[in-house]
Specification:
The complex is a heterotrimer of chains A (78), B (385) and C (348). Chain A contains 1 helix and 5 strands. In chain A, strands 3-2-1-4-5 form a 5-stranded antiparallel sheet, with no helix packed on it. Chain A has a single domain, classed as SH3 type barrels (Roll). Chain A is 17% helix and 40% strand. Chain B folds into 2 domains: 318 residues, Rossmann fold, CATH 3.40.50; 48 residues, no CATH class. Chain B is 38% helix and 17% strand. The radius of gyration of chain B is 21 Å and the shape is globular. Chain C is of the alpha+beta class. Chain C folds into 2 domains: 143 residues, 2-Layer Sandwich (60s Ribosomal Protein L30, Chain: A); 158 residues, Phosphoribosyl-aminoimidazole Synthetase, Chain A, domain 2 (Alpha-Beta Complex). Chain C is 29% helix and 22% strand. In chain C, strand 4, helix 4 and strand 5 form a beta-alpha-beta unit. In chain C, helix 6 packs antiparallel against helix 9. The chains are: A alpha+beta (78), B alpha/beta (385), C alpha+beta (348). Chains in contact: A-B, A-C, B-C. Chains A and B meet through strand 1, strand 4, strand 5 and helix 1 of A and helix 1, helix 2, helix 6, helix 7 and helix 10 of B. Strand 3 of chain A pairs antiparallel with strand 8 of chain C.
Chain lengths: 78, 385, 348
């Protein structure tokens, strides 16, 4: 649904609870009001000027592995 | 772009396509509904259906909050501009949506109304600060993904003692909409169009978690896979749905594990619960009156409720005659089944909710997919949509 | 050139603003023209001080084109309304295969517009014209009341001459022709958007605004049988290809992987929910030529500074519906439709 994008946190301003994030090389300022414990270099999902959630690197890698395995070991229909 | 490009890789697409071909049971049909306009958009923009077997059909659902906002609410927004002379802050999506009398926010702007496109509720607050002598109203729309940012803004406005800021709240709830679709007689009857499984919304789920869908999976006996936004996510989720259907399961599975958990974002959920409460009933364009499907601002924050501040009347506006949106939203009909599609109803001149936003199934089909139309006048290789 | 001392005081560029007197035809207007426009746009014809410019042309086919420029903001990374005005009209003339010769420029100025900004625009125009080896030989100035103009509007008109044997037009594309693009998409639109206050994103992208006539000259010299040339400005590549498809009554098939887009432009488009295919370019062109000439044309383009990232992006086909269809990088198919209304950033 709503257009949300993975972005990397470049810097954080703790007093205003805002961060500069980057998508590729394009930078934007967003609010961290909806997430806890975000750190510089974390990746977050951003939507309408807010970070919605942190992105789990581990899960992202696992998901890509699952894609890559497809076609190698396709299960037979039950 | 990290976490974007990797999920659009052509080689992985081909692998997944091969798996899907192999595992799809040739003796049955798979009708899979994507609820979310973002998925509709991804499917069409990348041409995902070309990689699917012929017996898998994508059924395009309600699409997006822009599509389902009733005309009467846009009429209210225009009233705020014309009768109350407010500065109306809105997301870009709403600008071209047609209201009654062929009006729209963009047309109102052209005649001098103070409509300001914003990217974030933070921009709206800034505008309120910079214009202390004017009333500033934020036109809040969106599903559960977009609601927490509005909650944050209202709380900040209260903390800052902003007297000239209010919110016209049109936030809607996803589970109620899914329920409404599943409850329609055409969908429940065996023999007419069936929806075999659902792609669960990506970013709504990042907020509400995967738990709310467990109820549907169980009571309607249909599998749900929470699917990410990228085309590879959609394909992998299709594969997971096919497997569930082949195995006779109807569970909630999560493909989008990199941002969705079972519990969701608790901080965002509690902020929303603090500021909003559920409306008993709300009208959805194309779906009619749906109970417990929308939010209103709690009495504690009544000062920031534009509906109260400006005494906005409920406006009943009717949909265009001949518009098949109610059926298309439920996946019962296709855009090409509607007589208005491509004749008087186009993205330049949208008649109903399915065409108003680029996420709507009619708009997506028109903009990306209409070369697939089996035309009488030309012979082309038609691919089943 | 001698500056005649007709005016008691020099023009106060630093702190001055445009006022109604500058448009009234009197001494104030004459001074503005002399000490700002003529001073920078300086050429023999303009200095004559007539209401028109008189010049000879060699016999042959003439080309004329006109453009209004209303861009906001006026100054953006990589250019401004002035350089854009010169490049835009030079390019429109060049897209017929013609060599641009002379330009006219009309200015509509808003009362209160700072003279220092006006001078900056005119200096930029002069530099662009000089680099393109064209002259602004005649012009006009009007002033409108405060609130009735967005600072400055510029209209430029250009004339040029088409070499014999060159026949380039939007209705000449043939099934089988190759479609070439001279470089990366979306640079100008993204650069302008990044300067707009309410969108607020930071990027190094600069506008690609440039005069393309020398690139065109090289292309036409090497491949005189080019069928179509057009620059994808407003509405982007998608709109321009749809126009050509309709004019020529053909279809087109594109290969998304072949279309060059800078990573930073891709990222900005993702952020705003926009499609690079629909974003304006001001220093790129599309060429449609017979298939057997495509490789040669590509080489010529790549040898020119403005065509270094040129690519063959597709081909022309028979299609009664005039669809522009594209194979996506992902492996599926979609059409590339006309732009419906203005592209607006979206949340969903």
């Amino acid at each position: 649904m709503c257009l949300a994008l993975p972005a990397k946190i470049i810097s954080i301003d703790a007093t205003t609870d805002r961060a500069i994030v980057a998508v590729g090389d394009v930078k934007k300022e967003i609010s961290l009001a909806l997430v806890e414990g975000a750190k510089v270099h974390d990746f977050v999902l951003i939507h309408v000027g807010y970070a919605l959630n942190k992105i789990s690197q581990q899960e992202a890698e696992r998901t890509l592995e699952i894609f890559a395995e497809a076609g190698l070991s396709g299960e037979k229909p039950a | 772009m990290k976490y974007i490009d990797e999920f659009r890789q052509r080689e992985l697409a081909q692998k997944l396509a091969a798996s899907i071909q192999q595992e799809a049971d040739h003796d049955r049909q798979y009708n899979l509904m994507e609820f979310c306009g973002g998925h509709t958009h991804a499917i069409f923009r990348y041409g995902v259906q070309d990689l699917m077997p012929a017996n898998l059909t994508f059924v395009h659902g309600p699409g997006c909050p822009v599509c389902v906002l009733p005309i009467g609410r846009i009429d209210n927004a225009i009233q705020l501009l014309e009768q109350h002379n407010v500065i109306l802050c809105t997301y870009g999506d709403m600008l071209r949506v047609p209201a009654s009398g062929r009006k729209s926010l963009l047309k109102a702007k052209a005649t001098g109304a103070d409509v300001r496109m914003v990217y974030s509720t933070q921009d709206a607050l800034k505008i309120a600060h910079n214009n202390p002598d004017r009333q500033v109203v934020f036109f809040a729309i969106g599903f559960e993904t977009t609601t927490p940012p509005t909650a944050v803004a209202i709380k900040q406005a209260e903390k800052q003692g902003l007297k000239n800021f209010s919110v016209f709240c049109n936030h809607v709830l996803t589970p109620a909409a899914i329920q409404s679709i599943l409850d329609s007689p055409e969908v429940r009857d065996i023999g007419s169009v069936s929806i075999d499984g659902f792609f669960g919304p990506s970013h709504v789920s990042t907020i509400i978690g995967s738990r709310p869908y467990e109820f549907f999976a169980k009571s309607f006996q249909r599998p749900v896979v929470i699917a990410g936004f990228e085309p590879l996510d959609v394909m992998q989720s299709a594969l997971m749905l096919i497997r569930q259907l082949n195995q006779g399961r109807h569970e909630v599975e999560n493909e989008y594990t990199r941002v969705v958990t079972r519990e969701g974002n608790l901080k965002a959920q509690s902020l929303v619960a603090e500021v909003f409460e559920v409306r008993r009933v709300f009208e959805w364009r194309g779906l009619g009156m749906v109970p417990n499907s929308a939010l209103q601002i709690k009495p504690r924050f009544a000062d920031f409720d534009a509906e109260l501040r400006f005494q906005l009347p409920a406006i009943q506006a009717s949909d265009i005659k001949g518009c098949e949106c109610p059926s298309i939203l439920r996946g019962i009909k296709k855009p090409t089944d509607c007589k208005l599609f491509g004749t008087i109803c186009t993205p330049e001149n949208p008649m109903g909710s399915c065409m108003v936003s680029s996420e709507g199934s009619c708009a997506a089909y028109w903009s990306y997919g209409r070369f697939r139309q089996p035309e009488n006048k030309t012979d082309r290789e038609g691919v089943a949509v | 050139m001698t500056t005649r001392k007709r005016f008691p005081l020099p023009l106060n560029i630093q702190d001055g603003v445009v006022d109604m007197a500058h448009g009234s035809g009197g001494r104030a207007m004459a001074q503005l023209i002399d000490q700002l426009f003529i001073k920078h746009l300086d050429n023999r014809l303009l200095r004559q001080g007539n209401d028109q410019a008189c010049f000879s042309v060699a016999a042959g086919r003439m080309v004329m084109s006109t453009d209004g420029h209303v861009i906001s903001p006026l100054f953006f990374p990589g250019g401004d309304i002035g350089s854009l005005a010169i490049h835009g009209t030079v390019n429109d003339v060049a897209m017929s295969g013609a060599q641009p010769l002379y330009l006219a420029a009309g200015f509509i100025l808003e009362e209160g517009f700072p003279l220092v900004d006006l001078e900056r625009v005119v200096i930029s125009m002069a530099a662009a014209a000089k680099a393109a080896e064209v002259a602004v030989v005649t012009g006009d100035t009007k002033v409108v009341e405060r609130g009735k103009g967005d600072g400055i509007f510029i209209t430029t008109t250009g004339v040029g001459r088409v070499p014999d044997g060159v026949n380039i037009s939007g209705d000449l594309a043939q099934p089988g022709d190759a479609i070439l693009l001279s470089g990366t998409l979306g640079d100008h639109g993204v650069a302008v958007m990044s300067s707009r206050e309410n969108l607020e994103f930071e990027t190094q992208i600069e506008s690609d605004s440039a005069a393309l006539h020398t690139l065109v000259a090289d292309m036409v010299a090497a491949v005189p049988s080019i069928h179509c040339l057009r620059d994808p400005t407003r509405g982007g590549l998608a709109t321009t290809l749809n126009e050509l498809a309709l004019q020529s009554q053909v279809g087109m098939r594109l290969e998304e992987r072949a279309i060059p887009v800078q990573p930073a432009v891709s990222a900005a488009c993702e952020l705003l929910g926009l499609d690079p295919l629909y974003i304006a370019n001001e220093g790129k062109l599309i060429a449609i030529c017979p298939a057997e000439k495509a490789a040669q044309l590509l080489a010529v383009m790549r040898a020119h500074p403005l065509g270094q990232q040129a690519a063959i992006i597709g081909n022309v086909v028979e299609d009664p519906n005039s669809f522009v269809q594209m194979e996506t990088a992902f492996g599926g198919s979609r059409i590339v439709d006309w732009l419906a209304g203005e592209q607006l950033p979206r949340i969903c």
